[in-house]
Description:
Layout: H1 2-20, H2 40-46, H3 56-66, E1 70-75, H4 81-96, E2 100-105, H5 110-122, E3 127-130, H6 139-147, E4 152-155, E5 167-171, H7 173-187, E6 197-202, H8 210-227, E7 231-232, H9 240-243, H10 250-264, E8 273-276, H11 279-292, E9 299-300, H12 307-314, E10 320-323, H13 326-341, E11 363-366, E12 369-372, H14 376-381
Helix pairs in contact: 2-3, 2-13, 3-13, 4-13, 5-6, 7-8, 10-11
Beta-D-glucopyranose binds next to loops.
Amino acid sequence: MKKKVLSMVLAASMVAAALVGCGGGEAAPAATSEPAAEAPAADDAAAPADDAAEAPAADDAAAPAATGKKVGVSMPTKDLQRWNQDGANMQQQLEAAGYEVDLQYASNDEATQVSQIENMINGGCSVLVIAAIEANSLSTVLEGAKSAGIPVIAYDRLIMNTDAINYYATFDNYKVGATQAQYIIDTLDLDNAAGPFNMEVTAGDPGDNNAPFFYNGAMETLQPYIDAGKIVIPSGQVEFATVGTPKWSTETAQSRMENILSSNYADGTKLDICLCSNDSTSLGVQNALAANYTGDYPIVTGQDCDIANVKNMIAGKQSMSVFKDTRTLAAQVVKMVGQILNGEEVEVNDTTTYDNGTGVIPSFLCEPVFADANNYKELLIDSGYYTEADLQ
Length: 392
Ligand code: BGC
């Protein structure tokens, strides 16, 4: 009952988010924000029925300055599904806007990413769009970009401790974690239920600046219930430093969870909640549960709506995920690229949250959206993100 109400509320907010698209309008208006009416591009691309291949937004926003310019797009790895989608969307939308694209994947290897970025700088790129593997590893190479006058957009993950970053485009990372926590609160009716419910926490890569935002968004939302004794953590592993998962590895998350299960749940203790920051770590936790836990299946959270995880949501092995439409983020970044190259004011909607150690980086935060087995069709299939066949 409670769950149904939640789904309806979330479905309504999902539709609202889809209508307003990336410029969700919730973030604090920035000094440099343009009126929404002048910035239809990203909104258009975010509309649920749009096919990524159409990319109407980028065309409109970036056309005048595009011809002949090369944009370097540096992605962390092909191993995780989302970055393949991010890279493909960026390439397709940039090319549709008339840019040449140098798209590179760095196999989750920091030195490879540095050398790929060096090549982009030396190869005549006019703008760099970078999703960093490790937040602190790019300062030196980006000094080169700065001296060459090449603007840099941090894509999805903030790049730390360098003043060579001009803009940051991402999803509201804190809200991702808060959405996971709210699902737990609503599903277990924590405002009324006495508990205690047993929870274990699996967070992201300590080298990824997003990971503490996801963790804090979830844990701060759950803290009143932990303080009230309604949620307890039998392993005692709760600090971010303890629950983090280097490189977001499925295998690492799995082996850590196996240890937790054998040390704390082998005697039949019930596990009610597995708070997992994203889908790759969630998969590891689900594998550990499948092999080592026979009690009632817990709530298991995630983020990204990767295909394997959506299949598991349908199969009841993962309770929810958070959908971050990579088409929307790509459209926003393509728009930023055009505004930069045109010498126009660059649209941002947050100028307070993301300090990279050299000052706050003007940011554009897109809206993350709740997903579960009840709304995935509308969210993922009707919007053209996946086909039915993808999820078979
Ligand atoms: C992204 C997540 C992703 C994770 C692992 C984070 O920086 O924001 O969407 O799940 O990296 O790739």
